[in-house]
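Instructor's aside before we start: the two examples that follow are unrelated to each other. I chose them only because their records fit on one page, so don't look for a connection. First example below.
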Amino acid sequence: MKRRNKRIVIRVQPFYTMIVLFILLFALVLLIVFPNIYWKSEPLILNILYNCLLFIFAFFSFLLLLKYIQIAIVSERGVDIKNLYGTIGRIYWKDISSLNREKIITHSSRAVISFDWIVIRTEEGQVVHDGAENKRNNPPWQIIYTKKNVSIIKESLKQYRPDLHIETYDPYKLLNAKKKKK
């Protein structure tokens, strides 16, 4: 009997970001509807032009929103980070050099906030500049640090890479170690 691959889907970004983006998109759709109710005295051609432009803007904003919704699929092969348009990154268990918990400044939904992230590095020395910045084939990879995500990754590490564990990353510790070597 063939064994089925166990695949677990986890969230990559903070949840509130998606809520804020959907609210902004809903407000944009309301901008399409309400002028037709209140501005009936405007010429018909202006109303049609206004509605078409806002509809096109709302449509492309929705497509852009879908691009930023990312998930990570944890399986026997490794971790696949995907969005609606395809695979952003595929990390095999054997290629992972370290998993760190890092507090990274995250620019999202018009705010700058520090979040805890699980950073997956495939080579030493990879630097994270901004949270929620998973780009196609551009490591290191980041997954939001939640209890669910940590437990899923820890269980997978026990099963597929028992030599690895999630470490708390301290950049000051690295700087002090470099100063001591000099």
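Example two begins here.
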Amino acid sequence: MPGLKVTYIDFSLFTAPYDGELIRAVQSLDKVESVSLFARSARNKNEAQWLEEVQVHNTFSAAEKLSPLSPALCRIMKGVTLPVQYQRLLRHCSEQQTDIVHFQWLNIPKIDMRYLIQLSKLTTLVLTLHDTEYLHGEGSSLIQGACLMCGLVVFVGVL
């Protein structure tokens, strides 16, 4: 019986140490065949060390080039290109026959939902909620939190 194929999603690589440790723990399980990560490129050696021996599908590479010039423009570019990242993820899950997709968080729930519904038809979705106060209480958090709550129906597990 073939092992599980798992894909982790942390598009912005906000939690490189957590991602690295979690992925290594999952890779060590007997029933896991492969693990991959959809995330931006490591920005420094510290981030890179956590991602050694992890198959990383780089996201937002064009937007990341703008980061030193204009962090605000970089964020806008990430939002605009989020659908492209989801198309890549859908293609990956379809081609690799991914068994589980684990999201660290959702970027823009209104956009995420369109693609989460499509993904849920291909694979099992799991979401980790790290904060009980969505987006740390920033101005848009009520709207995005409400969108997230509506979206929870597509997830098999919420950790």
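Strands lie at 4-10, 32-39, 55-58, 100-103, 124-127, 157-158.
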